[in-house]
Amino acid sequence: MMAIAHYKSLDRFPTWMWIRDDGYTLVLGAPDDSYVFYSLQFPIDRLLAYPLYVLAVLFVDALILFCMYAVARRRAQRAVKPVTEALDALSRGQSAEVTFGGDLAEIGNRLTDVSRIIERKDSARALWIRGVSHDIRTPLSLVVGQADAIARRDDAPADVREQAGAVREQGMKIAALVTDLNTAAQLDYDAKPVQTERVALSRIVRDACARHINEGFDDAFPLTCNIDKAAADAAVLGDERLLTRAAENLLANARSHNPQGCAVHVALEPAGTGSVSMRVADTGCGAAPEQLDAIRARIERAQRTGTVAAAYGEEHGLGLVLVDRIARAHGGTFSVDGSQAGFTATVTLPLAP
């Protein structure tokens, strides 16, 4: 009985013993090799620590999985980063050339092909704009010149001089629009890189004011110019032609939106440490809050899309949007304000070191 209780077998036959309540003993046996018995013994302290062992194993497994995920994610980011950079460049209108190996080679080749196609289209568009602008400018100059000559003839009838003056005025507007289109093409498609040289803003302001007077606008739009002594020698690093265009567009904006005439004030003054502002304010009809919101919305749309053309076709044309683009191309800002009487536009630029 003791052997059965200890070994759970009798002569290699699996055997179980049960002492019943009535005092009899029931012995059951099974065929040889039909059961295997194991005797397990655990110290109580280890058995109590068993949940901690399970938690430790689970923590190590989770740590291994996290390390595998981090490594895989790092590799995926490293592989995809050139693709995202190329897409960002394309969204900004810049060229992108991506070289991949392995499974991503086809994607890189397609992105490079798309970039080259867009670049060719942009180049063709810029060339077309410059060609058409050149073809328009020559006969337009002749028309404006002849109309100006007729408008100045004392022996011409008054109605003829008036009509010639209207032709001259509209011709000059078309000439300004052609210039704006050329400038927009340069900035949008990098048809001509922005030059970087020291430019004296006081000279640009004086020249723009002189052209305003020489072209006969001073009668209907009397102009005052104030160059602060602290800004008299102010210079910026940039493109003189583009900065001149910005100054002329600000004056043209004051004239075009106040056909009844108004006073125009031009100021060049410091704008904090390391900056200078060029401000053009008029005493005309000004702009309602919703009009100011519309102007700012068009400027923001041009900034978001990266093209001046995105804001074309509306009431205010390209003028102010182009000024904002020129200011940003020189690291500056542009703002409009109508809270006071009239309309004020301000270009703020960083000073050259």
TrEMBL record:
It comes from Senegalimassilia faecalis. It is a multi-pass membrane protein. The chain crosses the membrane at residues 50-72. PROSITE patterns: HIS_KIN. This is histidine kinase. InterPro entries: 2C_sensor_his_kinase (IPR050980), HATPase_C_sf (IPR036890), HATPase_dom (IPR003594), His_kinase_dom (IPR005467), HisK_dim/P_dom (IPR003661), HisK_dim/P_sf (IPR036097), Sig_transdc_His_kin-like_C (IPR004358). It catalyses: ATP + protein L-histidine = ADP + protein N-phospho-L-histidine. Pfam families: HATPase_c (PF02518), HisKA (PF00512). Its EC number is 2.7.13.3. GO terms for molecular function: phosphorelay sensor kinase activity. CDD domains: HATPase, HisKA. It is found in: Cell membrane. Keywords: Cell membrane, Kinase, Membrane, Phosphoprotein, Transferase, Transmembrane, Transmembrane helix, Two-component regulatory system, Virulence. Its main location: membrane. GO terms for cellular component: plasma membrane. It comes from the Bacteria. Residues 131-353 form the Histidine kinase domain. PANTHER family: SENSOR PROTEIN CREC.
